[in-house]
Amino acid sequence: MEDIKIGVYVCWCGTNIAKMVDVEDVSKEMKKRPNVILAKDYKYMCSDPGQDMIIQDIKAHQLNRIVVAACSPRMHELTFRKALENAGLNPYMFEMVNIREQVSWVHTNRQEATRKAKALIAGAINRVRWHSSLDKRSVSINPSTMVIGGGISGISAALKIANAGIEVFLIEKEKELGGMLKHIDLSFPHFQNVQEIIQSKKQLVSDNPLIKVFTSCEIEDVFGYVGNFEAKIKCNNDSNTLKFGSIIVATGLKTFDPSPLSNYGYGRLKNVITSLEFEQKLKQGEILTEEGEEPRHIAFIHCVGSRSTENHSYCSRVCCMTALKQAKQAKMVVPEAMVYNLYADMRSVGKNCEEFYAKSFNQDHMFLMFNHQKALPKIMAANESDNCNLIIEVDELLSHEDLEVPADLVVLMVAMEAHEEAKNISHAVGISMCGNDFYIERHPKLDPFSTTTAGVYIVGSCQAPKDIPDSVAQANAAAARILATIIKGSAEVEVTTAEVNEELCCGCQTCVNVCPYTAIVYDADKNVSVVNEILCKGCGTCGSACPNGAIKSHHFTDQQILSQIEGLMQMSFELEEEIL
Amino acid sequence: MRTRVDAKFKHELNKFGAEDWSHCFHCGNCTASCPLSENAALFPRKSLRSIQLGLKDKIISNPEPWLCYYCGDCSEKCPQGANPAELMKTLRRYLISVYDWTGLSRIFYTKHWFEIMVLLVFGIIVGISLSIFNPNAIVYELNAAGGVKINEMFPVATIHLGDLIMAAFVSFFLISNILHMWYRVLLKPKISVPVYLYFTELFSLVYQFVSQSKFSKCDANGRKYWASHWLLMSGYTIMFVLVVVFLPFFQTETIYAWYEPQRLLGYYSTFGILFGLIYFSIGRIKKTTEKFKFSHLADWLFIILLFLTILTGILVHFFRIYGLVEFTYYMYILHLAILVPMICIEVPFSKWSHLAYRPIAIYLFNLKKKAENRSYETNPELAVN
User: Distance, in angstroms, between B24 CA and closest chain A CA?
Assistant: First the structure.
């Protein structure tokens, strides 16, 4: 083996680490470990001077292994790997030890924390001796993009990408493009005509020769990996095969069916309708009860299916504003009607939405608050003497009274749910869903439109309930990400993958069955398993499952892991002896 | 038993103080900042909510509006500008019209022209009775001291009788309205009050009536407002008693020294009333504090009528002493033509009635609180209803 020369750097992280770990003592101790040429401590390793220090030391001392003890690798592993690259070393000759989140931030005894830091770094020093160079791997990118779903999100993304000169396949299950916006009359808070908006967007799509629209189509299956996807779609009875490099999933939403909620009587009582059904009445410009009369009392009940332990725990975000909008529109269509808003909380988020809410306070608009967790309102048919169609019983919170609200028409603000096709798409495309059937994003704050599957993006309500501006923003963000990848021309893929030693493999196919990414295939001719390095994510499941130990996980070999354990244990024993 | 909401009810209140309280979203800042609100009486938010929901029965049986002394802190704190202070005032006007079983209050408050017309007509009738139908003519002779012979033009006995009839009229309506109020607040809601409490709480009734100490708890200007109001009230009470009970002692042809009770008491009353009136007028014109920002016709009528009464009274007093016969004669008629309608209309049917309703409301509220025998301080959740 080559002459191992390890450089160890212990970061103060300002006071984040130093307040609980005696970093100077740690670096002094680590200098004594085998193969360690130098051990330094420094205030901010991730800073430019910190990185420069590593680069200079590598060149000056011909270091060929680096250990940095600092924050979480999720923060700066890439930073330090880049520093190694800049110094001419392979980036995988590096090991990072987390002595901030795993030591300083979770311990209160300075001596114990310092000892733990020493043990962890000793382990890393042992491990890094067994690291080998790994070369970067990239795949080429087919610029064509597939957009699944032709609502406002899908259309926005398709237009953005096509306007950059890239071919887009827009797949829509319905006969017409437009998604949920086909059913909306006016938007909140500015009362813009949604039909005009969606029509103009559809026109732009049909005018653009680069967007190939497939309506009344379903996805049968999707194969491949980032930059190199292939899909089989079925349109009526015709099948098509498409090749593309990126996927945008924009399957959108459907509304919650309130029939199971017996207290609202939807489907059983007349004149109880959903917000979507009420929107149709607004589109027609006429609000009539089932008996064909103009209602004198119109009630809106919020949080139907949302924020409940039995149905959906989440808030559907747009219903409060929709209710306020529909209430205002109702007063425009039927000026003499009395409007009641039964809400749990009033959430008017978004630009100009609070101002819209403030303008809703007027004499003929009554707001009543109920407890959505303890006591939902109950709708009942009214008697002849009541002079209205329905009575809503509500335990009102602001007055602490048990009240009755008369209503001729009740509108239920139903929850937003993921589209019924979302599950099929998730299987076809290889992305995960959360318990609420919304797709899971790569990072909830910093990357809400990517997934952990490279090349697949999620935009619009299929990721989480949202309004039109946020859907459009997300769609544009995904489009920008895809265009950036196309410009780069290639995409990097994981190198810490698994590799099958064909001589040791007995062809039992255990690994094929356990791989969550379907990245292993069985070669019947050779009677061995073969790992697709592009699809492999390096999770290590196959390596641990293989009964023969025939699978090697690059950068997580048995030797590396065992030596790390050895280093850690050895240091721990030494330190314990010191105490005793 | 559920109560039906009534969206139309709040329109009834528009005539009593045209404000739109739909902007209140029940943050509760008003009740939190009110210095007079307590766990057993949480106002003004609760009252505002009752109006928004149209809970008429709850409003009519609620004595809380009378516990408010309009410091205006709630309106200052309100983030929505919903003006809860004016709401409580509006409720007081509304309740006056509710307690009055004749229905005249309601018409006076909602149809301004009607009240003014009635006052004018009544005044003219009084004026005509005293002049044209007066069997006694103007007496140009002066008495020995040089003063006008006022008791020959307007015999004390007759005038005294008239005063007593007026007092009886006013008392009849005030007392019957108070009984109606008692019915609405305690009897109809079936709140049973042990009889002994009616006696034990009497002391605080008298004390509140006389001292009006709650005023000073209200706002930074509390002391000033309390003093001005107390001067006006005491002045008015003394004058009322002098005129109704001791008229022969007060309406005299003798010219006493200024420090004798007939004159001294009169001067105190005049001073007290004038001080209060000027303080309130300046406040209402300049809109210096929250409570002076909104004036209903009833508020100005009160000030104007009382001011005119005092003015004509002062003039009668000096004209009589200095022997100006015709001035005395006509000013006396004018004085009564203003005073009689003012007392007969304003006391039982309009703003003046607060002199009875407020102390009685405090009394009834205390009865209710003690009868329900709840410890609001240790169990505040009981307070919410």
Answer: 8
- Residue B380 pLDDT: 62
Residue A376 Cα, gap to closest chain B Cα (Å) = 15
Integer-rounded Cα radius of gyration of chain A? 31
| Distance, CA of A185 to CA of A183 (rounded, Å) | 7
The residue of B2, B13, B14, B385 whose CB has the most chain A CBs within 10 angstroms, and thus the best one to mutate to test that interface, is B2
* Angstrom distance (rounded) from CA A295 to CA A334: 8
Distance CA A276, CA A293 (A): 20
pLDDT value of position B112: 84
Q: What is the dihedral of CA B349, B352, B358, B363, to 10 degrees?
A: -70
ipTM of the complex: 0.83
Give backbone dihedrals phi and psi of A135, rounded to 5 degrees, phi first. Answer: -90, 150
**Average pLDDT rounded to a whole number, residues A13-41:** 95
- Gap between the Cα atoms of B166 and B41, Å rounded: 37
pLDDT digits (tens, 9 = 90+) for A324-367: 999 999 999 999 999 999 999 999 999 999 999 989 988 789 99
Q: Which residues of A touch B20 (CB under 8 A)?
A: 362-363
Answer whether A394's CB lies under 8 Å from A405's CB. Answer: yes
Give the whole-angstrom CA distance, residue B242 versus residue B246.
5
Cα angle vertex A350, ends A347, A351, to 5°?
135
A357 Cβ under 8 Å from any chain B Cβ: no
Which pLDDT value is given to residue B379? Answer: 59
- Three-class SS of residue A489? coil
CB contact under 8 A, B7 and A364: yes
B7/A366 CB distance under 8 A: yes
Q: Which candidate from B4, B20, B22 shows the least CB-CB separation from A406?
A: B4
DSSP state of A375: B
Element (H, E) at A330: helix A319-333
Rounded Cα distance between A514 and A541, Å, is 7
d(CA B136, CA B151): 10
Q: Is the pLDDT of residue B374 over 60?
A: no
The verdict on pTM exceeding 0.80 is yes
| B34 Cβ contact partners less than 8 Å away, ≥ 6 residues apart | B43, B44, B68, B71, B73, B74
Q: Give me the mean pLDDT over the A204-231 stretch.
A: 94
> Has residue A504 got a pLDDT over 90?
yes
pLDDT digits (tens, 9 = 90+) for A218-270: 999 998 888 999 999 999 889 999 999 999 999 999 999 999 999 999 999 99
Distance CA A540, CA A554 (A): 9
The angle, 0 to 180 degrees and rounded to 10, between the axes of the packed helices B222-244 and B156-182 is 130
Is-contact A128 A6, C-beta < 8 A? yes
pLDDT > 70: what percent of chain A? Answer: 100
CB B315 within 8 A of CB B331: yes
- Minimal CA–CA distance to A204: which of A141, A160, A237? A160
Query: So what's the pLDDT on residue B197?
Result: 87
* pLDDT tens by residue, B233-259: 999 999 999 888 888 888 888 888 888
Nearest to B52 among A366, A400, A405 (CB): A366
- Smallest CA–CA distance, residue B284 to chain A, in Å, is 28
| Interface residue ranges in chain B relative to chain A, Cβ cutoff 8 Å | 1-5, 7-8, 10-11, 20, 22-23, 25-26, 46, 49-50, 52-53, 55, 58, 80, 384-385
Give residue A481's pLDDT band: very low, low, confident or very high (50, 70, 90): very high
A404 touches chain B (CB under 8 A): yes
B5/A368 CB distance under 8 A: yes
- The pLDDT value given to residue A81: 94
Q: Would you say residue A287 has pLDDT above 80?
A: yes
The token pair that represents B361 in the structure block = 């409301």
Tokens of A99: 């002595």
